[in-house]
Amino acid sequence: MLQQLKALLFVLFQSPTFYACVISILYLLHRYIADGIRRCWDPRRTERPPCLAASSSSSTNPQEDIPRLDASSSSSTNPQEGTPLDASSPSSSNPQDNYEVFLSFRGETGKTFTSHLYNALDQKGIYTFLDVIRLERGEDISPGLDKAIEGSRCAVVVLSGNYASSRWCMDELVQILKCRKDSKIKQIVLPIFYHVNPDDILKDKGRIWEGFQSLKREFPNNEEKVKTWRDALIQLANISGHHVDNSTIEANFIEDFIKVVSSKLLDTALSNVSEEGLVGMESRLEKLKLCVSRSRSLFGDVRFIGICGLGGLGKTTLARVYLEYMSCQFQASSFLANVRETYEKKGDDGLVKLQKQLLTDVLKGEHTVNNVFDGKDKLRKRLRDKKILIVLDDVDQLKQLEGLAEKNIWFGDGSQIIVTTRDESLLPRMYGKKEYIIHKVDELEDSEALQLFSSKAFKSDCPPEDYRELSVKVIEYASGLPLALVVLGSFLREKTRDQWKSALDRLKKYPDKKIMKSLQISFDGLEETEKNIFLDIACFFNGYYIDYVMNIMDMCGFFPEIGIRSLVDKSLLHMDHDRNKLRIRMHDLLEETGKEIVREKSPKEPGRRSRIWLDDDFIHVLNKETGTEEVEAIVCHDMSYDEKFTWRGFSNMKKLRLLIISSEGIMCCPDDDYLPNELRFLKWEGFPLKSLPRSFQAHGLVELILTRSRVERLWDNPIMEPLYNLKSIELRHSSQIRKLENFSLFPNLEKLILYGCDGLEEIGPSISVLKRLTLLKLLWCSTLKSLPTSMGGLKSLKVLKLTSCSSLGDLPEGLVCSNKELDVTDTGLRDITPSVGDRKALKLQSHGWKNIWNTIVGNGLSSAGLSCLEKLNLRRCVLRDGAFPDDFRYLKSLGAELPDSLEWIDVEYCGELDTFLDPLSQCNLQCSTIYCEGCFKLVDKQGSQRTAMTSLGRYLQNPPKPSKRFDIVLPGNEIPSWFTHKVRGSSSTSLPLYPNWCTNKWMGFALSVCFTDTGELIYGRSWSWEIKINQEDWGFGHVHWPVKYVDGTNFNHGHIWLLYLPRDTYFRSEWHEKSGDIQFSFKPTHEFESLEFKQCGVRLVYDQDIEELSLTVKD
Asked: Where are the transmembrane segments (predicted)?
């Protein structure tokens, strides 16, 4: 280009076309300057090395003159990829800043060994950074490489003889070793000692040491810098590396070394995936990568990749591993799980939810999507310039693809959209022939299948010799299907050889050997109640919270505690942790197996099946009156049916035990209302009748839930017999009901919940017959003015919640005398002090509390009859003007006036409180939960560490409930020194497990974290600890924040959470033999939360530590 410029200058004054020459000069000058800037300021230029460039020298594509930024961009036609990037710019999230491998080398190897190594990495599809300036010219100047180093998963250091003579190489090495130590980066470092001996570095001799001495002489006045370089060299020499010497055949070495790199990168990806089925994943991942890489030269820059095959083959796991492995090559990534399930349950609302998640994953922050069409428009406009990797998991309809990834123009060049599906025809029907590729997931190889099966059947990688032949027969039957191997392995575990032979003989009766039959064999081995639980979950409750499911199964008499445990043991169910709750999960193939078992009893007539879950089947059975005694359960959610149907269809369902209906459009024909009397659980959203049918004599009914119903009276039958088994009634948003009476019809009621019944004016005096009533919730019943005086006789009542009953005046005399919990937030109550009673929980958030306030600060709560109080909530007492007497906000001390029974106390926002659980005073309190968020004056006076450790010591010395954990949260900037394993500036730490750590003297774990919230206010948080033993889940899920909701108002200042987990609850017998270490990580609710971690720590607590704890407090 410079020669062209000179030529033009030479002819300038001789040419008659003067202006044309001027324009040409300006254009070439512009290109020259731009190219110079690119070369000077874009150190991440990775043009093909000479050995690769030779193969493309004949190309006529003018864009090939633009320097490429990565090894995998050779097919890109995006002109933006040639744009220079400043390393300090906000482009650190761009793919140019993230690589799988960073090559660090001296120019002397650039055109020989390093060039061949780069070529091999590129052909393997490993995304590699190469500094081409050094490669082409042998120069060592590499400014601004920090981002490229930090963004690489692995650093390969080619340590040649002259490496240490370059300040730039040494600076690179220092940065690489920093990333290796950084707990957030954990970079893999692989040294290649190229014709050098690492021992020479440690012994200050040899060629590489001579090179370092020459570099040292260049910096006589910078000893600190030289020392940093020397330390880095020594560190590298102590890392186990790979050697190249005169006897090495470099081609063979590179081939073997690439396998090492691939294995290391795969290990990193697999470490982020905790699902079953990882056996054989390396070979599966290689096949998928090869399939995708081949498509680059055939198709455009945006590729739709279908991962297809039977359910249970591991499609989801493969897609997740691929995302973990390849995400560094993209600006952002997103994994949208369970697309089919989300759409089936919520329809278009489900698609909107997934669209929001995709926008959040890629762009961060919250995004408003009004409907599916609005979401499609936002995806198209906001993602079209982003190179992203998306997984759409379990797609089964075109509409799902249309809503989430309809066209390739929605995404930036180089994007990949992975679709896992059982329907191979989806992608051909959705996209053009050259826009998609299909990758079929293969069954496991026999050796891999045997390994997976053995892990379930024998808890080892291979079977015992006497079971080997039988195991091979099982492998042949399962045909490499991972799910079948897992289920059959669990089924045959601990069975005798004769039982194995019997099971295999039974398998021979199924000639097609399909997966459904394989799974049904496990079903055949269940007890009768376990079969019922399995079928109910398969047809109705897959993905539901376990407490909800167990409650229903218990009402049906299925003994769920032991039954669900048995199904989990046999790999027919598993549990997912969702915040602080557990969800029941069943693999989709197992779900289909259960439904097929039900369907095959009557393929054509649903009225002869045991369970009905499809809306059309339900309407058919009712209107055609084809129901029979075979029908046991009906669960139909979100029905869209606005016509009348006959309820006579229920009349023949003599064994219907479970009925759950959700539809506000269903109407019944006049005079034919009927419900089966055998019902045990009835939940109907949008119940259309003014009362339950007169003929409904459900003597077995245990729970009744009516939501948004038209009920005016529950029963309108004067001769109805009592329902002695009815334990719970819940009416939600049933605004037509004015009076609740006739409680003698259900004398054994234990729970009564009226939520949002804003028309309710009166509760009948017959409520006094409910001698077993333990819970009464009257929430948002705004027109209820009084409670009957007879309620004072409800001696079993433990929980009374009257939240937002704004018209309620006074409580009946003696009503709350035995309550454990009382919540009268936002009521019109004037005073409850005369009936305070022996309550165990008190929530003070209401008007007119002068008397109770005087009790707290006067004679103490015990003197007011609260000697059994277990829970006291004083939260937000300073935030609501008029909610308390004026002097309440100046609450300054709590301690002696609190009863010894107190287990849980929340004094959040009590900003004037400066004395509470005083370490220097005698106190018998042994609270298990103490929440002091924002109590800054308290820690100023008492000290955060001393208060926390004193409270822990009091609890450990004589815990009222040894199985209960201990929590305290309070302001502070440093965790107590008592913790043995502490880490600064991190939210994670680990604890080594030494031999015999789990003795009888071991009591439990103590954890602590100190952090500050530096971001914006986010409501609804629920922070938690994630705990693993040797990188495996410890079996008890996340340990969540001690209060349900956190608004974060005070966390812009440092706070400490100290936690103790007792052995009585958190222990597994196999830990006696465990070695290695335990990993503890404090997790925010949202990835985008800005938490600054000051310190975290952990300690194993033994009997003898209690005395040391007391000494620590005194010091």
From this structure: 7-29
Calculate ∠ Cα 704-710-714, nearest 5°: 45
Angle in degrees, CA 894, 898, 904, rounded to 5:
95
Comparing CA positions, the residue from 859, 861, 915 lying closest to residue 892 is 915
Question: For residues 954 and 923, is the Cβ–Cβ distance under 8 A?
Answer: yes
The per-residue pLDDT of the chain, averaged, comes to 77
From start to end of 830-977, where are the E strands? 841-843, 871-873, 893-894, 904-906, 915-916, 929-931, 966-971
Q: How far apart are CA 547 and CA 1009, in angstroms?
A: 31
Buried/exposed 774-796: b ≥16 CB within 10 Å, e otherwise: bbbbbbbbebbeebeebbbbbee
pLDDT tens-digit series, residues 927-937: 888 888 888 88
pLDDT value at 534 more than 90: yes
Q: How does strand 633-636 pair with strand 611-612?
A: parallel
Instruction: Identify any residues that bridge with 193 across adjacent strands, giving them in sequence order.
Output: 159, 243
DSSP 428-458: HHHS-TTTEEEEEPPPPPHHHHHHHHHHHHT
Q: How far, in Å, CA of 578 to CA of 517, rounded?
A: 32
CA distance 1089 to 1022: 12
Rounded CA separation 948/1097 (Å): 14
Confirm if 909 and 933 have CB atoms less than 8 A apart: yes
pLDDT in tens, 1044-1069: 766 556 677 889 999 999 988 887 76
β-partners of residue 1012 are 1092
H/E segment holding residue 1083: strand 1076-1083
Provide the annotated active-site residues: 172
Q: 774 vs 39, 682, 840, 902, 910, CA distance in Å?
A: 77, 21, 13, 21, 32
* Cα–Cα distance measured from residue 314 to residue 324, given in angstroms and rounded to the nearest whole number: 15
What pLDDT shows up at residue 505?
82
Burial per residue of 1008-1037, b for 16 or more beta-carbon CB atoms within 10 angstroms, e otherwise: bbbbbbebeebeebbbbbbbbbeeeebeeb
pLDDT tens-digit series, residues 945-990: 888 998 898 888 878 778 889 999 999 999 998 998 899 988 888 8
Tell which residue, 591, 631, 587, 624, has the closest CA to residue 609.
631
Structural element, H or E, at residue 685:
strand 681-685
- Six-digit token pair at 355? 């669209």
Mean pLDDT over 356-379 rounds to: 91
Distance in angstroms (rounded) separating the CA atoms of residues 885 and 907: 17
When comparing pLDDT for 924 and 743, which is higher?
A: 743
Residue 761 to residue 737: CA distance in whole angstroms? 9
Q: Which two tokens stand for residue 548?
A: 């909800």
pLDDT digits (tens, 9 = 90+) for 434-481: 888 888 887 788 888 898 889 888 888 889 999 999 998 888 877 777
Q: Which residues fall within 8 angstroms of residue 14, CB to CB, at 6 or more apart?
A: none
Q: CA nearest 938: which of 1005, 866, 874, 1019?
A: 874
| pLDDT reading at 1021 higher than 90 | no
- In degrees and rounded to multiples of 5, residue 127 shows phi and psi of -75, 110
pLDDT in tens, 132-164: 655 444 444 445 577 888 888 899 999 999 999
Model's pTM, two decimal places? 0.52
Q: What share of the chain is helix, strand, coil (3-state, %, to 5)?
A: 40, 20, 45
**Alpha-carbon distance 984 to 977, whole Å?**
12
Specify the 3-state DSSP secondary structure of 855. Answer: helix
Cα–Cα separations (whole angstroms), residue 546 to 537, 554, 573, 1034: 10, 12, 11, 20
The three-point CA angle 102-106-109 to 5° equals 95
State the virtual CA torsion across 494, 498, 502, 507 in degrees, nearest 10.
60
